[in-house]
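Readers outside the structure-tokenisation community will struggle with the description of the input data as it stands. What matters is that the chain and its backbone geometry are given together, residue for residue. For illustration, here is how one protein appears when written out as sequence plus structure tokens:

…
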Amino acid sequence: MAFQVIWSNRSKKDLKLLDKKTASRIVDKAGWLASQDTIFLEKVKGTGYFKHRVGHYRILIEKFPATKKLFIRKVRHRKNFYKNV
């Protein structure tokens, strides 16, 4: 059974700031993650969030396995990702 992807308002704004090709890659990767039965994400140290790498960008994800939902919190370049996580 697949996961449902929910984009936060912050993540939508982050995508609008990117060029179309990069934003498309990130959206496609989030869709691919949602289609997987089991998802292995790397945990962000000191938080309850997870991250996924797409090129030089990182996706901050909150995972709800009981309800099969992935909540995308933000999308940032790797040099800015770890500030204010």
Remarks:
- The domain at 4-81 is CATH 3.30.2310.20 (YaeB-like fold).
- Residues 51 and 60 are 5 Å apart (CA to CA).
- The helical segments are 9-17, 20-35, 78-81.
- The two ends are 30 Å apart (CA to CA).
